[in-house]
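Example A, followed by Example B.
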Amino acid sequence: MTSPALTEDFQHLRGCEASFARAEFAERQKRARAALQAAGQEAIIVSGPETIYWLTGRQTAGYFAFQALILPADEEPTLLVRQLELFGAVANTWLEDIVTYQDGENPVDALLAVLKARNIRKPAMELGGWFLSPRVAIEIAERLDVGELLDGSHILPPLRMLKSAAELDAIRAAARYAQAGIVAGINACAAGTDENAVAAAMLSAATQAGSEAMAMEPLVSSGPRSSLPHMTWRRRTLSAGDPVFLELAGSHARYHAALMRTIWLGTPPVEAQRMMDCSLHALDAALASIRPGVPCSVPHNSAQTVIDEAGYTAAFRKRIGYSMGVAFAPDWGEGAILSLFSDVSRPIEAGMVFHLPATLRSYGHWTVGASETVIVTDHGAEPLSNLPRTLTIR
């Protein structure tokens, strides 16, 4: 194992690529330690790139390789990364203790050495992420001789629900990038062009506006394939009479804001326009019901009522919204942390951020709708876009 704290050669790199000030991460770690103490845990091993980033600023495209943050309840954390990632980790973070494993070595050996050195006997572990394989988790449990690892997946993610001022600034910037991308996508829609050209326009405009790498690619689909959820571009040529569905998230310091709009090349069918009107009324109802103290179920139920009364229950089989914030591929949202959905009793609070995609689908024909990313203030929902939500006719 290697620790840059023991070497002077790269001290000048520490924090030079950090997304936020040292004090921002110190405050997050303080809150995390308090949460561990409240949960009665001596330490947690964090494996998800989002939580590691939220706590330390550590970011890389190389999170496919094993990495872990060991956070004791009463001491400073230790970051374990692949040797290749060492200098990037030093530059991204303000951490004093970073250890590494070499390609060809078993990272579990390095992890257990850290735990032994820090006298951590029975840590909780973030088991719910996408990037911790069951095989590795089983090996850690067996070699710690604890029988079964304590699942600490629920301890830290809730701390991310309420955004700091610095986080909100990043999300506002991401929203500007997303709007630039959607505007460019709308302008690129025309008969004779194809989905790839529309996607290229969206990506180019958002990137030129300032967006960093996005946690998920833009969604661009046209014609009958626009009715299928989460479709990406596939070279299809746009024709007169086509619906076009566009959705994009901008990214600033790994914080995301998403935006979705619908375009029609020509006059839409009466039923499509009726569905579009319903989706906008549902979105308005959801936005109007967002305010501190209200359960997360209320915005969803408000939207669902509008949709049900219009007879489109079968066209809307999903939640009305989900939390936004730190994101790494494959998802741009924090929907695993908090949803605006039926039976979610968690009260909404000022400082939360949600994306509300109000979509109705006629499967095999079209999707219509619009979305907003909003910041919850003391007075309600603050949309981060000023782009018209109505169906764009081109």
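Example B, a separate protein, is given below in the same form.
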Amino acid sequence: MYDFSTVLDFDALQSVRPGSSILISGPAMSGKERLAYDVLADGARDGDGAVVVTTSDQAKTVVSDFRDLVPELEESQLGVIDCRGEGGTDSGSVDGAYVHQVSSPGDLTGIGIGITKALEGLHNSGRERGRLALVSLSTMLTYTDKKTVFKFCHVLSSRLDSAGYIGVFTIDSSAHDEQTIQVIKQAFDGLIELRDVETGGREARVLGLSGEPTAWKQL
């Protein structure tokens, strides 16, 4: 089992089944990306493998930021799939991390290939446990339609299940209509919702992982 409760204090996150995929949903600037990175970093500190699929930050920035979170990060412990389309379609290494370049956030086949290679690299280095973060599905949805993204998430969830890894995926709830959010949500085992509150700060709740949705809790 995977324990997220050290990152986000909910009992529902204490025993997350290997193979689970969790959607992190919230409006812009609500801390979704940082939460996803914190989930990966928390595992990496205990030796888990980590894979980041980025649609905004360049791979070099992702590796640097992740090393700031996990200074003891080992060689071959991190894989990054850079979907910004600025580095061609090459694969290589950046500061000890495997990096796969994809032509655009809409190249879901290329992204899938990169993820497979990253997972194989982690497996070959002896990482039997690992976590993947995809930031963000909203960018993908500007390049392709919701049904295609849903199918991609469903296939990727099966791949993570086979590996015994877990995945967290972010989506900007304020950037899409309710129908799109509902379609995408169906591809996931659980949901972490974030929201801003009028008094300042943020709240979170967890759905789908332990029966009834949890109550909203201040972060």
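On Example B: Residues 91 and 100 are 4 Å apart (CA to CA).
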